[in-house]
Specification:
280 residues, alpha/beta, 9-stranded mixed sheet, elongated
């Protein structure tokens, strides 16, 4: 998809480390979300036992997804500990099976790489990996993991009753439709939409022992539509830069929120924040 190529163009450079005091805390930030990006298109239901969606997976080159996550982690740590220094790391995760199930341990491939590193100079280690959600929630369908686009092409408002033409067929936008952001920076009740999503899990660890201190999960997304409340205008190719920018913001926001929810302290929590607010 063209919007995936635009990600590299929209992506800014990583924030430079601040000038920290000699005894400032050092945070190692590792993004292991990899390069997998899914695009899910809904379709008309043909059988109750079948998922009413077509899935395609793309590999985003240039380490772009890891870099986006690192930006979000970096900004959150900078806010929580302004005088700190950060070390940036990334890797391609490797685990068996299509989906990585929620576990009390990081993937073995991530732990193996961490054990090879000199961690003596780090005060805290933050590791980001893809998270998964099995159930249908927020109108995004079932079995989503990591990063991707959910394209809802089926009418989400009223479809007509008593033989009358429904809102989708009549290009009308009733208040019953889900709220979506438009290229004009407005929100509207959408009949159909496209939603960038980022499901991410952040582990806060002791770098020397690799003991888990804190852990949090974010399920972030943002619904988008054209000015008529439909996905058709977004998919037409005229708003690719808008779409790419929204993908970037959703990824960075989810990473930042995961760190800030953890607060660099010590508990496990899952945050279903729902729609990601648009940047002002």
């Amino acid at each position: 998809m063209k919007c995936l190529r635009l990600l590299i163009a929209v992506l800014g450079s990583l924030a430079a480390p601040v000038h920290a005091a000699p005894h400032s805390n050092v945070y190692a930030l590792l993004s292991a979300v990899g390069s997998r990006f899914e695009v899910i298109h809904t379709r008309q239901q043909t059988g109750s036992h079948l998922e009413a969606a077509d899935r395609a997976a793309y590999r985003v080159e240039g380490n772009v997804l890891n870099r986006l996550v690192l930006q979000g982690l970096d900004r959150a740590v900078a806010r929580l500990d302004p005088g700190s220094r950060r070390v940036y790391l990334s890797m391609e995760p490797n685990w068996s099976g299509r989906y990585r199930k929620l576990s009390d341990k990081l993937p073995a491939s991530v732990l193996d790489e961490l054990r090879k590193m000199d961690r003596s100079g780090w005060d805290r280690l933050l590791v980001a990996v893809p998270a998964q959600r099995v159930e249908d929630k927020d109108g995004l369908g079932r079995r989503l993991q990591g990063m991707g686009l959910y394209v809802q092409t089926q009418c989400q408002s009223d479809t007509g009753w008593g033989g009358r033409i429904g809102s989708c067929e009549n290009s009308f936008r009733p208040a019953s439709g889900p709220e979506a952001h438009t290229p004009k920076g407005e929100t509207t009740a959408a009949n159909t939409f496209i939603a960038p999503y980022t499901f991410i899990e952040v582990w806060v660890m002791d770098p020397r022992t690799l003991e888990v201190i804190d852990r949090t999960i974010q399920h972030g997304h943002r619904k988008l539509s054209d000015d008529s409340g439909n996905v058709k205008g977004i998919l037409s190719g005229f708003h690719d830069e808008f779409l790419a920018t929204q993908i970037v913001e959703v990824v960075q926001h989810a990473a930042r929120e995961a760190v800030e929810d953890a607060g660099l302290r010590g508990k496990v929590q899952v945050q279903d924040r729902g729609p990601v607010p648009a940047a002002r």
